[in-house]
Specification:
Strand content: 25-35%
Number of helices: 3
Largest sheet: 4 strands, antiparallel
Radius of gyration: 14 Å
Helix content: 25-40%
């Protein structure tokens, strides 16, 4: 049985860049679990990436989307990946938001128009 696909308006390379950065971040901080899911709702595709890591305090969530900002200076990374996700999402009139996941880790929700 085949299922219909979910499509976004945009370049495949840009979607790969956004998902790659979100998954890289989730894998870096996860204890043992990362989950990715996509749903179509209200004319948009919502891609969620969940991890079971330490999470991110709400006060830091907006800061993490700024260029060069890192949650932990000792951890590897440049502080550019999440800013690139934000920039590309905005280019496509989408959004990136953060919430706490049921595992107590972080949920990144990337919303892009269909």
């Amino acid at each position: 049985m085949s299922r219909p696909g979910i499509f976004i308006r945009g370049q495949g390379e840009d979607l790969q860049e956004m998902l790659g950065n979100l998954l890289d971040n989730a894998c870096k901080w996860a204890k043992s679990n990362v989950k990715i899911q996509s749903v179509q709702e209200n004319g948009a595709v919502v891609l969620t990436v969940d991890d079971d890591g330490p999470g991110l305090p709400p006060a830091m969530r907006d800061q993490m989307l700024q260029r060069g900002v890192r949650a932990d200076e000792a951890a590897p990374g440049s502080g550019l990946g999440l800013a690139i996700v934000r920039d590309l999402a905005q280019l496509y009139e989408g959004t990136i938001t953060w919430t706490t996941h049921l595992w107590a880790g972080l949920r990144a929700s990337l919303r892009l128009p269909c």
